[in-house]
Request: fold
Amino acid sequence: MMKNILIILFLLVSMCLHAESRKPKGLIWSAFRGLEYRIKGGFNFGGTSPLPLPVEIREIKSFRPGMQIAIEGNVIKWFDSNKRWGGLIGIRLENKGMKTDARVKNYFMVMDAASGDVTGHMEGNWTGCVKTNVKNSYVTIPLQAVFKASPRWDVKFGPYVSILTNGDFSGTAYDGYLRDGNPVGPKVHVSEATYDFSSDLRTFQWGIDVGGEWRAYRHLSVYADLTWGLNAIFPDDFKSISFKMYNVYLNFGFGYVF
Reply:
């Protein structure tokens, strides 16, 4: 996915340079009809987290968002001659992910123990530490209303839908113990165990996308978009983690306005 994103980003930059030098007639035709085209490239910063944090998570020991690339192409249709209000549709190729290390108590888990009192498949209430790696790739379609607050500022808001193309949700539980079956079940000490719920990730996700874009120069812009998932990354019948988790990310980067 990362290789494909970099290739597409290179092609989009080449298109920008070509458009600036040639001024295609198609862009002039589009301008007379209130159509505007933009491409953007940036990074997602945020996390995949329960909201709010449950009492089972006692401490976040470390958090690393990593380099999550996002590239996007938009078409805007302005509804009035002053270009105050418009509608936007786009397509975004993006990664959303993070690495965390947390201390938890009575955190329901399904895992495979590698060392400790017992090894093999286990499930129950875990007390100890958990390292989680999330790296998911999506094709996202934003549908937004656009308001031009000033000649340089655009404000955007609306829903988005995402399709998961590649998912990784895995990690390690270490230095703790498992209460077999329920919070007062037999205590089993575990030095290290692994889990992998990648195949359980929900394919279709949706949420709210709110942001702003500042026109720094005639064609160059700087933008920031907050995407807040409204359905959990796992299906409702997923029981291997006892609470729902949502994607909340800030997409920040640069854009080119044709």
In short: The first strand starts at residue 35 and ends at 49. The chain has two helices and eleven strands.
